[in-house]
């Protein structure tokens, strides 16, 4: 008979992410865990920063595993709570959001039974966590046009066209009225320049906004963040550049700057909003850095 080490497992759930899917997943995975003799408890978020508080509480309660059910924003908060406590409690991610960029890049989209095995198993990976203005993030920071494509794409469009819906939505937003370049200043050891740009992205993974190869050279364990700058250019060239994103060839475009760095400062001479992991994160300026291998993910 297999001997099972009884574990205390804390679920942190965003009930508005995936709705029925998140509920059904919680029930199915919990059934496997309870049958195996594990102790489970759950916290449900209702407002911003709840997941940070719940993750911090879980660390202080010395649980053996933390499981988050939600989208990129919820994952971001749970990671922030764990890292803020200098904890290496293994985290299992059950993606139930709109894009789930981080989970898709890490291949964490699994069946209920595979998720159960991931929770109780010992296959882990320590990954880098980004820092923006002293706040932690797991996937991406974005400034400029198209930075909110992922969470503003209508569900009806996604249900018909699948992930191609993001391309359609993004292309619909490329028009002269939206094309307002920003006078940006980027400072880093690898690249420093003042320039006119439409978009700035800084990513921990390759997947951004539903596009699998937006930052095609990115790695979650290299101690670097990948930066993409789309400079001001004619709309015809911009569309041509954008159509290359799905293959990751946009980084070779003359109007695109691509570099990797562990410390980047970003300024703008106008009021510009910053989107981090799909959520509003304040306005520029911003200082980005890396906390290497700061979180332990179950695979």
Topology (SSEs and partners):
Layout: E1 8-13, H1 20-35, E2 39-44, H2 50-60, E3 65-70, H3 72-84, E4 91-95, H4 101-105, H5 112-120, E5 124-132, E6 135-137, E7 140-144, H6 149-152, H7 155-161, H8 164-173, E8 182-187, E9 193-203, E10 225-231, H9 235-242, E11 256-261, E12 263-268, E13 273-276, E14 279-283, E15 286-298
Parallel strand pairs: 1-2, 1-3, 3-4
Antiparallel strand pairs: 5-6, 5-15, 7-9, 7-13, 8-9, 8-12, 9-10, 10-11, 12-15, 13-14
Characterize the structure shown.
With 299 residues, the chain is an alpha+beta fold. It is built from nine helices and 15 strands. It has helices at residues 20-35, 50-60, 72-84, 101-105, 112-120, 149-152, 155-161, 164-173, 235-242, and strands spanning 8-13, 39-44, 65-70, 91-95, 124-132, 135-137, 140-144, 182-187, 193-203, 225-231, 256-261, 263-268, 273-276, 279-283, 286-298. The strands form two sheets. Strands 5, 6, 7, 8, 9, 10, 11, 12, 13, 14 and 15 form an eleven-stranded antiparallel beta sheet that branches. A four-stranded parallel beta sheet has the order 2-1-3-4, sandwiched between helices. Strand 3 (65-70), helix 3 and strand 4 (91-95) form a beta-alpha-beta unit. The chain is elongated, with a radius of gyration of 20 Å.
């Amino acid at each position: 008979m297999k001997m099972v080490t009884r574990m205390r497992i804390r679920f942190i759930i965003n009930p508005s992410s995936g709705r029925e899917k998140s509920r059904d997943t919680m029930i199915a995975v919990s059934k496997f865990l309870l049958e195996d003799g594990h102790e489970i408890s759950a916290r449900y978020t209702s407002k911003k920063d709840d997941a940070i508080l719940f993750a911090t509480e879980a660390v202080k309660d010395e649980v053996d595993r933390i499981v988050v059910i939600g989208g990129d924003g919820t994952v971001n908060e749970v990671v922030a709570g764990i890292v803020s406590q200098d904890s290496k409690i293994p985290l299992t991610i059950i993606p139930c959001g709109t894009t789930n960029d981080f989970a898709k890049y890490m291949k964490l989209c699994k069946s209920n039974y595979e998720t159960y095995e991931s929770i109780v198993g010992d296959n882990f990976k320590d990954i880098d966590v980004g820092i923006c203005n002293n706040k932690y993030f797991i996937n991406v920071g974005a400034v400029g046009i198209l930075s909110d494509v992922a969470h503003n794409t209508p569900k009806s469009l996604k249900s018909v066209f699948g992930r191609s819906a993001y391309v359609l939505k993004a292309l619909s937003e490329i028009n002269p009225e939206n094309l307002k370049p920003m006078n940006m200043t980027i400072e880093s050891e690898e690249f420093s320049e003042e320039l006119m740009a439409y978009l700035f992205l800084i990513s921990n993974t390759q997947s951004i906004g539903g596009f699998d190869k937006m930052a095609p050279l990115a790695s979650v364990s290299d101690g670097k963040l990948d930066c993409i700058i789309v400079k001001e250019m004619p709309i015809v060239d911009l569309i041509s550049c954008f159509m290359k994103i799905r293959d990751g060839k946009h980084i070779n475009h003359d109007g695109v700057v691509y570099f990797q760095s562990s410390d980047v400062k970003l300024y703008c001479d106008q009021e510009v909003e910053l989107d981090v992991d799909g959520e509003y994160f304040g306005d520029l300026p911003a200082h980005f850095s890396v906390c290497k291998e700061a979180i332990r993910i179950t695979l």
